[in-house]
Amino acid sequence: MNKQKIASSIVLLFSLFLMVSCTNEPVDSTLAAQLAAANSQTSSTEIYKWKCEIDGVLYEWEGNPFTNPGGAIGAGGQATYVLGSLALQKINSSSAGISITAQMQNNTTGNFVFNASQPINITITDGNPQNIQGTTLYSSLYAGTINMNIASISNDTFVANPLNPGKVIGTFSGTIGKISNVSTGQITTSVVTNGSFEAIRAQ
Predict the structure, then answer these.
(1) Predicted confidence band at 133 (pLDDT cuts at 50, 70, 90)?
(2) Is 62 exposed, middle or buried (0-12, 13-18, 19+ CB in 10 A)?
(3) Per residue, what are the HEC states of the chain?
(4) Where would a tag sit more exposed on the chain, N or C end, judged by fewer CB atoms within 10 A?
(5) Each residue's pLDDT tens digit, 84-94
(6) Which residues sit opposite 58 in a β-bridge?
(7) Of 175 and 76, which is predicted with more confidence?
């Protein structure tokens, strides 16, 4: 009998023991619902997250691979890395939130510099995406320089292993241009600090 069969047998015996020993115990309906949800979940419970401060205002999100960006208030978002493209997002409702996007020059660890020739973009909406005046767009295309360090890239991916996908881990900070007045095109500079992420490696 190989190790895998031995491990399976132990798990089965332990499960049977729990079933027998708990037969007469009252069932907590809330706990039962949580266990059922956990058993039906096909993803890892590992947490993916990101955060940064823009002019001292903290933005952050954390969740699992299947967190729905359009989900409940406060719950939506993502931290995803796909073929060198980093997408960090938090949505407070179906129409308000923040999105940070960057395209690395190559799919490796190391330092990356974002400026007018290699832009990184940050968009913040106020709850009405149809209102251009309500959208604050930051971009290194306008001004500033963002430095990003990719410290670690997992060899595993969500495509190859959806049950336990790998992470891309990094940090970022610097300055970035902001459209202060949409009608006049006035640009100011904002400071980005304490940026970090642990993003799911999608591909």
Answers:
(1) low
(2) middle
(3) CCHHHHHHHHHHHHHHHHHHHCCCCCCCHHHHHHHHHHHHCCCCCCCEEEEEEECCEEEEEEECCCCCCCCCCCCEEEEEEECCEEEEEEECCCCEEEEEEEECCCCCCEEEEEECCECEEEEEEECCCCCHHHEEEEECCCCCCEEEEEEEECCCCCCCCCCCCCEEEEEEEEEEEEEEECCCCEEEEEEEEEEEEEEEECC
(4) N
(5) 999 999 877 55
(6) 53
(7) 175
Contact 88, 48 (CB under 8 A): no
Place of tokens 């500079």: 189
Please tell me the pTM assigned to this model.
0.72
The candidate with the shortest Cα–Cα distance to 77, out of 93, 64, 96, 61, is: 61
